[in-house]
Each structure stands twice: as structure tokens, then as C-alpha cells.
TrEMBL record:
The keyword Ligase does not apply. Keywords: FAD, Flavoprotein, Oxidoreductase. It comes from Rhizobium calliandrae. Residues 417-540 form the Glucose-methanol-choline oxidoreductase C-terminal domain. Pfam families: GMC_oxred_C (PF05199), GMC_oxred_N (PF00732). The keyword Flavoprotein applies. InterPro entries: FAD/NAD-bd_sf, GMC_OxRdtase_N, GMC_OxRtase_C, P2Ox-like. Its cofactor is FAD. Belongs to the GMC oxidoreductase family. PANTHER family: PYRANOSE 2-OXIDASE. This is GMC family oxidoreductase.
Length: 571
């Protein structure tokens, strides 16, 4: 494995690879790992370097003409980051992308879940729903992705109960309306609490057939003169160094915005962009509209938190914790024509919360040291009960909090007018920046409201404190709703069999362009409500298997051809 930097390479260098992977984020690195120690040469190309560089991140700029927009008198909703990652809330919509080796894993919190069965199904009440592959066909790749992410078993509903060390109380919720849903968090194996960083996974690759090229921004995908096959990539560094990369196979792993942008901007031969003869590239942009549904305060926090918190289980010698929330029941989605959505608990810790104070002290923070030590010293009972909960019962820690919220992330019904196009604005390379017009439809707003209403009603029925609904939900006033993106852009190069509504085929190859593949959330046929990384890696592993088979066949043909020529010469 070799790391090359385009800034120090000879100008106009010519590089060759069997497989060129554009983007060194979780998708690209996963594909590279799967191709390690195969007979094929692989080059991973990233616009950034090995570490975060502010100058490179300016290339993430977009012209945003859609949601989220500021509305008079309505409090904007942030992305919900806190602590050392609070700065991420200030990054403009659709610019929270990371140009460096490791990609989005540089700023994520590790939250993972698999898509539900209903996410793969054809749902008559949702246009363009249904995947060309079923969840059963992805199970092997899903489990492999879970192992790579250091996750526990891929169980995310009530089937998880039997595996938990101490199972949640059966609250008697009406499963026709609302059901339990769990998330788990990917952590580094040797640093508990530190989200998995894929730059480390890249450095761990020990294979002579895998190389990396950093500070290399792809300007264009080049096709053969017939426009039927991808042949090479033109790349450039911010300092102006250029190179051409010839490859038999090219895989775009740039994310939901950049994958679409690169196809649209590669228009030297096809004026509307590669794979865009039907004007589909960039359409159907979906994210996960996020907002706060409801909240409780005071003593009600503890009564809710004891049920909606973390639960642990042992798996392959490690303890894994799952966060319990609630999602709309599939039957209710079908009956009322709703999208899939789920609510998760968020506790706002008090300034004197002893466990938050302990974490700060353990990390060496001195800014609030005196206050933290005081909070710890005044809370021996809470610390003792927390240790018992964590170590014996495998449960979440008790916190002193000022508020417990239920936040929501929702699936979107696909809208062809929600899209990424090319702006008249230009970046430092002179390329058009992405013009993002994200639209949030009435179906997902209706679904979010119904989830909030059902949770409130069900809590009252079973004797839990009824949370105070967000004002716009309580007043049934959609104009008062406020949403933010979650940096989960999806579906802009969606997978399908109909070229009129999809960009790549079920093997993730761009329709009509041999050798050009796309990976990442941009190929999701629908977005679901779950955080995308686990499914991104699942599809990446599936694609890597396809590339192995494809290149093995090609090598066999070449070998067969050589043998035939030798026979002819001998004769």
C-alpha cells in the first residue's frame, strides 16, 4: 500500500489502475478493503489529505435554494450536535461533508441502524417506492458491514429483546400504531466512546494492490469516443498539479451531492452529463428532515428515561449498547399513507450532571474542572447507581437533566423536483458548484405529526407522562414547522431497472456506461428513516463482490485469448 500526494507528483502524470475509486470515505475505503490482496490494482482518490484542512473544505460550497429556510417567528432547528462537535451545527445545509481520508466518519457520532423490511417493499401509497433487491439478499453483506463497524447483532426492533442482558419493560404499546426501534453506535475497538474513524481503517489495509492518491479532486469522468464506456479520470490539486488516471473500472463514492455533481459536470461528450439522457441525475434528492416532536421536564424525565435509554448485550466478547426509541407501525403507515419515521430520546444534561462531569474530567478538560469536581463529590448515590446499571444490568447511565426530548428523523416521499443541478457559481477550479433544491413534502410532515400524536396518546393510555407536543403539532399548524437536514443526502443517482426513474442498475453500474459504478447513499432507491452508514457499507460490500467477479471474468477472457493466439502460432 502506497500513499501518494498529487501536490508533490510530476505535473500531467499518467497513472493506471484496474479499479479507480473516487472518494476515500466509508464507502470507498470499504470497497478497497474488500478488494485487498486480489489480482486487481486499486487506486483510491480523495480530494483531501490524511488530516482535516479548512482550505480543502471550501470545495463543499453549494448554492442552496431549497430547505431548510428561515421563517419569520419560527425558531430554527439545529442538527443536534453538542460538546466538542457543536461547531457542526453552524455548517450550512448540504455543506457538512468532509474532504479527507475517512470522509464523513471524521464528524459522525457512529449512529447506525439497518433499514426495515417495509423500506424495501413496493408501497402503493408512495411513488417510486420499492428496491430492485430485497433485504434477504443483503443479509450476508449486512452482517459483514456490522462486523466492520464493530456493531452487535443486526436487530433493531422488538426481536432484540431476547438478546438483551436485561430487557426493557413491556409497556403494552399498541404495536399496530407504534413499535420499539433501536439504534446502536459504531466505536473504535480500542477506544470505547470514540466513533469509528475510517482513516484508521484505510491505514490498516495491508495489501500491495491498494494505493491512495490524496489532494486529487476529480474534474471529469472521461468516456470513450462512443460514449459507452468510462476510460479515465482527470484530476487536479488546489495547487494546480494535474494527472490523468486510466482505469478499466471507475467507482464514484463521493456522496449524495458530489456523485450527482460529477456526473452532471462530465459533459464534454454528453451535454446533459453522463447517465443523464433521461434527465434523472440529481433528481429525487432526499435527506432526513429532523425536528423536535415533544418534550418532558422535571420528575417526568426519570419516568420516561428509565424506558427509553441504552440497553446492552454481549456479542463476540464485547458489550454493545442499543438506544431504544419508537417508530410508526407498518400497518399504520399503510392504512394512513405515511412514510417511515422514528423518534429517539435526547436528554439535555444539567450543568451539575455528575456523569457528564466525570467524562469531562476523564478527557482532561480543565475549563470547568472545579465545577465538575463539585458535581461529582455531591452525587455519590447517582454515581453508584450508574455503575450498577452499567456494569451489572448493562443499562444506560442515569443523568441529571433539565429536559428530555423526542427528536424525529423521517423518510421522504420521492419528489423529482427535489434535486441537485449545476449552479452558475464556480468553485476554485472553475467548475460549477452544486445547486441544491431540497423539498420537504406534505406526506413526511403528516407522518411526523402522526408519530408525535400517537406517542402522546399511547403514553397517556399506559400511564406514562404525556409529553408536551411541539407547538406547531399541538396547534396543527404546518406553517410553523421547522426542519433541518441531517447531512444524509440520498437517492440522487438511485438504483432501479427503469431508466426513466433511475441512474444505476441493480449492480450499481450507470445505465448504458460500461465500467462506471456508483456507491453510497446516492444509489438508495428510497431513503428510509435510519442513519445511512450501515446500509452504505452493506451495498459497498455487495458491489465489491460484483467487481471481483467482473474482473475475474475479464482476466479469464484475456488469458483465454492469449492461449488461443499461442495455439494458432504453434500450429
Amino acid at each position: 500500500m502506497v500513499f501518494r500526494d498529487l501536490r508533490s507528483a510530476p505535473d500531467n502524470a499518467l497513472l493506471d489502475a484496474d479499479i479507480a475509486i473516487v472518494g476515500g470515505g466509508p464507502a470507498g475505503i470499504t470497497i478497497a478493503r474488500e478488494l485487498a490482496n486480489t489480482p486487481f490494482s486499486v487506486l483510491v482518490i480523495d480530494s483531501g489529505g490524511l488530516d482535516y484542512e479548512a482550505e480543502v473544505q471550501t470545495l463543499n460550497a453549494v448554492e442552496n435554494v431549497g430547505e431548510p429556510v428561515a421563517r419569520a417567528g419560527i425558531e430554527p432547528v439545529g442538527r443536534g450536535y453538542s460538546g466538542s462537535q457543536e461547531w457542526l451545527n453552524e455548517i450550512p445545509a448540504f455543506e457538512l461533508r468532509n474532504r479527507l481520508l475517512g470522509g464523513s466518519s471524521y464528524t459522525w457520532v457512529g449512529k447506525c441502524a439497518a433499514f426495515d423490511e417495509i423500506d424495501f417493499a413496493r408501497r402503493p401509497w408512495l411513488s417510486l417506492s420499492g428496491w430492485p433487491i430485497g433485504r434477504d439478499n443483503l443479509q450476508t453483506a449486512l452482517d459483514k458491514a456490522g462486523d466492520l463497524l464493530n456493531l452487535g447483532p443486526n436487530l433493531y426492533d422488538e426481536h432484540l429483546y431476547e438478546r438483551l442482558h436485561s430487557r426493557p419493560t413491556d409497556l403494552g404499546l399498541n404495536s399496530d400504531l407504534v413499535r420499539p426501534f433501536f439504534w446502536q453506535f459504531s466505536h473504535e475497538r480500542d477506544q470505547h466512546g470514540e466513533p469509528m474513524r475510517f482513516n484508521r481503517r484505510a491505514r490498516e489495509i495491508n495489501a500491495t494492490n491498494i494505493d491512495f492518491l490524496t489532494h486529487a479532486t476529480v474534474m471529469e469522468v472521461v468516456l470513450d469516443h462512443n460514449g459507452r464506456r468510462a476510460t479515465s479520470l482527470n484530476v487536479m490539486s488546489l495547487e494546480g498539479n494535474k494527472a490523468v488516471i486510466n482505469a478499466r473500472t471507475i467507482v464514484l463514492c463521493g456522496g449524495g451531492i458530489e456523485n450527482a455533481r460529477l456526473l452532471l459536470a462530465s459533459n464534454a461528450l454528453m451535454k446533459s452529463g453522463i447517465g443523464n439522457s433521461r434527465d434523472v441525475v440529481g433528481r429525487y434528492l432526499a435527506d432526513h428532515p429532523r425536528t423536535a416532536l415533544a418534550h418532558v421536564t422535571g420528575r417526568d424525565i426519570a419516568r420516561i428515561a428509565r424506558h427509553f435509554n441504552f440497553y446492552g448485550l454481549s456479542h463476540k466478547g464485547r458489550t454493545h449498547f442499543y438506544l431504544q426509541g419508537l417508530s410508526l407501525g407498518p400497518d399504520m403507515q399503510m392504512r394512513e399513507g405515511l412514510t417511515n419515521c422514528a423518534a429517539y430520546p435526547v436528554q439535555i444534561h444539567a450543568a451539575d450532571d455528575p456523569w457528564a462531569a466525570l467524562k469531562r474530567v476523564a478527557r482532561g478538560s480543565h475549563r470547568t474542572l472545579a465545577r465538575d469536581l463539585s458535581a461529582i463529590g455531591r452525587s455519590p448515590g447517582m454515581i453508584a447507581s450508574g455503575l450498577y446499571n452499567r456494569l451489572i444490568r448493562k443499562r444506560g447511565l442515569p443523568h441529571r437533566s433539565t429536559e428530555l426530548r423526542f427528536d424525529v428523523m423521517a423518510e421522504q416521499e420521492l419528489d423529482p423536483e427535489s434535486r441537485v443541478t449545476l449552479s452558475h457559481q464556480r468553485d476554485r477550479f472553475g467548475r460549477p458548484v452544486p445547486r441544491v433544491d431540497w423539498k420537504i413534502g406534505s406526506c413526511e410532515i403528516k407522518s411526523i405529526k402522526r408519530l408525535a400524536q400517537v406517542i402522546s396518546k399511547e403514553f397517556g393510555r399506559i400511564g406514562l407522562p404525556r409529553p408536551q407536543l411541539a407547538h406547531w403539532i399541538a396547534m396543527d399548524d404546518d406553517s410553523g414547522a421547522s426542519f433541518t437536514d441531517m447531512a444524509h443526502p440520498s437517492c440522487t443517482t438511485r438504483m432501479g431497472t427503469d431508466r426513466a426513474t433511475s441512474v444505476v442498475d441493480p449492480n450499481a453500474m450507470v445505465h448504458g456506461i460500461d465500467g462506471l459504478f456508483v456507491a453510497g447513499s446516492s444509489v438508495f432507491p428510497t431513503s428510509g428513516h435510519a442513519n445511512p452508514t450501515l446500509m452504505v457499507l452493506t451495498l459497498a460490500i455487495r458491489l465489491a463482490d460484483h467487481l471481483k467477479a467482473r474482473h475475474a471474468i475479464d482476466r479469464g477472457r484475456v488469458a483465454s485469448g492469449r492461449l488461443s493466439q499461442a495455439v494458432v502460432k504453434t500450429a
